[in-house]
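Hi all, a correction to my earlier message: I attached the wrong file for Phosphoribosylformylglycinamidine synthase subunit PurL. Here's the right sequence:
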Amino acid sequence: MSLADSDRELVVSELGREPTRAEVALFENLWSEHCAYRSSRPLLSAFDSEGEQVVVGPGDDAAVVALDDETYITLGIESHNHPSYVDPFDGAATGVGGIVRDTLSMGAYPIALADSLYFGEFDDDHSQYLFEGVVEGISHYGNCIGVPTVAGSVDFHPDYEGNPLVNVACVGLTDDERLVTAEAQEPGNKLVLVGNGTGRDGLGGASFASEDLAEDAETEDRPAVQVGDPYSEKLLIEANEALVDETLIESARDLGAAGLGGASSELVAKGGLGADIELERVHQREPNMNALEILLAESQERMCYEVAPENVDRVREIAERFDLGCSVIGEVTDGNYTCTFEGETVVDVDAYFLGEGAPMNDLASEEPAQPETDRPEVGLEAAFDAVVSSPSTASKRWVYRQYDHEVGVRTSVGPGDDAAIIAVREAQQGLAISSGAAPNWTDAAPYEGARAIALENATNIAAKGATPLAAVDCLNGGNPEKPDVYGGFTGIVDGLAEMCETLSTPVVGGNVSLYNDSVAGPIPPTPTLAMVGAKDGYDAPPLSVESAGDLLLVGDLGLEAGDTRLGGSEYLAQFGGSDRFPDLPDDPAGLIEALAAVADADSTLAVHDISHGGLAVALAEMVTEDAGLEVSIPSEDPAGALFGEQPGRALIQTESVEAVREAFDGVAPVVELGAATDDGTLAVEIGDRTIETDAAAIRERRATIERELE
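and the right structure:
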């Protein structure tokens, strides 16, 4: 990638001279799509980011939300898509490291991770190679730093074949006294670099992430991928905690995209200030590095701190205690952002212009066409087997069992459930976490599919008895210069924004990743949402049923023939055909509120949302060796009733049918489906047919990933 002619002209006009080689490289990276959001920023105003509990919204390294007057959580999400294609292990691992350091720069301690992963067809050898490498990278890094990975999602879709997605969210814990931001405070304060030595890895990573992947990317773009060291990150986490404890930090920014140049210039630009930096002062791990390499290398495990002069020695002492490098590289000024190397000025620009001066793109957009209704004719038993055993709906145990999800002793509900719950004992609250998207949904209908993704994540949280609090998004799209791709991207932004506003859930931050395009074509528009919710206490109803109790469905069942739309379903993904996307509930906010209340009721035995794979998969997931279900579905549309994926629906096992009906009166329909048994079987009667199976056979069907990879 190189600086476009029009951008170069703008830079020359601003500087009044030709830019230096280092300045060109800085503008190339900081004005890239990855950093400047040139194609997406005009759309992002659709999001409502304000709320009574929002302390810090979009624009910082992570958002900050109050649980109570004294306890804050931080919330952030990042993508590491291109690097994970080129080097799946290091690409995914450094994605974890980056979002954790975003948490540190807010003065917070990381307490939970969630990963949302998207790959090509599961039976493709290259997709499996990427899948295994990414999971290994995430597990290695997260386990080594001692931050539990408690939630997330994994989806397989043919259009990720040439460009997988790795989206990672992190939740941290802080309070008002410990809160730090990325806004420089005062001229004369020192800029201190703490952490690993700077090497040559990750050069040009920001610009690399702003281009389509080339056919030879796995070999040619390897130098743009960073190499992680989780043991150094763990030391950095603890050192950061000590620095914050002693209030030694005035502001902070982690070194990610565009390396030192990106972090230091953004830090001072946010404060309307400048900096004088001497690049040769940066501690390095490779010999003979030049100014450009020092400025732009994206070597990991590094933080840039603003420190008052009288505190510099103490910061150095703490860094040395944790065996971390420490360099005083310059100071904050009220002038330009300048960098010198061995006495020569290599950068002298206005920091705000560098960070905010990139012109926005005005791109053509085409709305996607509505699909026709063309349903396949498939036997119910064959469809049940295929949908329940599909890699996208099957058990993800092979993934999450590699993660230490209990380290930190806060995990009350771990991965494998609708949402995780982390105990925030400081506020005596449980924090529910859900993260994911649904590529089949947004491929079929970007706007409605994105609305559905927001509602699905909220339903996951409500199923654990929590109320949605805030969300961050990772908006992944293909090449925005293609009108159909940009039209789909616009749809997911508007759909996500509309439903989050309806649910009174502010979107407090996020990330945009475009140019996820390769020789295989663009990815589906993929709006990953990481949502958190709060509840009193840490307990929640399980997903699995007990051996006695009535089973109810909350939401539409599709009672009449052709009543249920199958658009975006795993059923259509398995057997072909097309259909319109299903309608969403009329009162989603009321539904979420009622579901959270019912989930916390003493008479509720189990709750499970109905989403990917529809009712068939949800029923199968609730059965255990000791508890089964006998279900009768009063529908004239068996395929629609079993495999339709209308979001905002849930299965509830209860001891009080009347209490559930009362809770949802005027909000959503409640249908009695049947009751639990004590024999571990699942019997689904629908029309004149019955599907019968048991927990052992379901477990075997759902072990698709484990069976293939072990």
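Sorry for the mix-up. Residues 125-145 form the longest helix (21 residues).
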